[in-house]
Design brief:
Blueprint (H helix, E strand, L loop, with lengths): L2 H5 L6 H6 L16 H15 L6 H8 L3 H4 L6 H13 L6 H5 L3 H18 L15 H13 L7 H32 L3 H15 L6 H9 L10 H26 L9
Helix pairs in contact: 3-4, 3-6, 8-9, 8-10, 8-13, 10-13
């Protein structure tokens, strides 16, 4: 561990030390030009081309024309490599225009959520990396900070702010996973999304009994399955409903702060 790492407080996992640049690096690698940055960039290329499951120390070494053992001088394990890949691919957040224009917390939070979704869609393999804990790398903390900044002026206390940030982040990730899985399933069948939905509707009409499934029957008769599909509709709908709920919490908090004694009123 470097002197900087020891001074910073010690007990960081190796992956976090690497992400924060707190670890000693070999003065000279076994292969000239090999570096942590090149290793992570090669791993990202493999994930983008072949999926996260293809990423291994051996496969990355082959991509670099190096020996597998030489990578371990820079990266201690595949889990550490995952953390660094995620940090590199997701990157830091761009400034929120809603914050810069003073548009308000709701617009800022919606913009923040959409920016996260765009990063996931640009690197779908990121969604396959297990969540190993709360944000702790430089870029993940920067995104966390920006989410909290989006809620400045909302009147929420710090505990509610972080709960809202977690709620929105979980929704973004869940929706991105669902859309990625559906897109992959459609691509695997080699037909258009419209053909898949038409086939699904025909299947439901064969299986659904109006007496047992009255809700699904009404759904089929409504023609929803044949309507043009907007790929962003479910995300926009879900975010608006989430923000409606946060807005209700903001109003309730404001009312409570004006109540005698400062107690929050019941809804």
């Amino acid at each position: 561990m470097t002197e900087k790492s020891s001074a910073a407080g010690g007990d960081l996992p190796a992956s976090l030390e690497a992400a924060w640049g707190l670890r000693d690096r070999p003065a000279k690698g076994p292969k000239p030009g090999l570096s942590l940055e090149r290793i992570v960039a090669a791993a990202v290329r493999v994930a983008a081309a072949e999926g996260l499951g293809a990423v291994s120390m051996g496969r990355v070494a082959k991509e670099l024309g190096a020996s597998t053992m030489s990578l371990y001088r820079y990266v201690s394990a595949k889990d550490e490599l995952y953390v660094l890949m995620q940090e590199t691919a997701f990157g830091p957040p761009e400034p929120l225009s809603a914050l810069e224009s003073g548009a308000g917390w709701r617009e800022a939070l919606a913009e923040w959520a959409s920016a996260q979704r765009n990063r996931f869609h640009a690197h779908l393999w990121l969604l396959r990396i297990p969540v190993g804990g709360p944000p702790a790398t430089p870029n993940s903390l920067a995104w966390w900070e920006q989410g909290l900044q989006a809620l400045e002026g909302s009147g929420l206390d710090e505990g509610d702010k972080i709960s809202v940030v977690l709620l929105v982040s979980n929704f973004v990730r869940s929706e991105a996973v669902l859309m990625a899985d559906l897109t992959a399933a459609v691509a695997a069948r080699g037909v258009s999304p419209e053909d898949v939905m038409a086939s699904y509707e025909r299947t439901l009409r064969r299986l659904v009994d109006p007496a047992r499934h009255p809700g699904i029957s009404r759904l089929l008769e409504s023609g929803v399955f044949t309507e043009p599909d907007d790929p962003d509709y479910e995300f926009t709908f879900g975010m608006e409903r989430l923000l409606d709920g946060v807005e209700a919490l903001v109003r309730r908090t404001a009312e409570g702060s004006r109540a005698p004694g400062g107690d929050v009123k019941s809804a």
